[in-house]
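Collaborator request, handled under Task 6.
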Amino acid sequence: MKPVQYAVAAIMLATLFGCGTDGASATLETCDAQSTFAQVQQQVFEAQGCTASACHGQAASAGLDLRPENAYANLINVEATSGDYLRVFPGEQDLSVLYQKVAAKTEGFQLSALPNPISGGAMPTGNRVLSEGDLGLLRAWIRGGAPETGIVAGSQQYASCELQ
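Structure tokens returned to the collaborator:
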């Protein structure tokens, strides 16, 4: 196969099964997070396969790289490619396209039905959805100002493990 054919095949598989996963439920076995954002990185982005190469890893779908070394800078106060949103608007999940896209999948609403519609599909791709706990962690982090360091008050109730 040619490199282009490999890339197309990887994208098709990611769409069918959810980026970076085999469609099975992801569990976070260890927790070495020292901040709420590090917990979001592990529990949501990595455990859900968002950082997989064909998604928001090396391929940086929609220009978004969610690998640990790039995620924060690629999210906070960065204009989204759809709608009049930022990827993450600190303090306000309803103005954050990241939150809206994952909440649409978990809660079952249409992005096109929002007062300011968002193009593209809900996330994660495939049959996967974020748990209420994962969505709560993301919401708590954003509402708490989306800091890169420190533990956001109220976020620990949604964490899959105790933060260090």
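The cover message to the collaborator said: "The radius of gyration is 15 Å. The helical segments are 3-17, 36-46, 71-75, 97-107, 132-143. Please let us know whether this matches your experimental observations."
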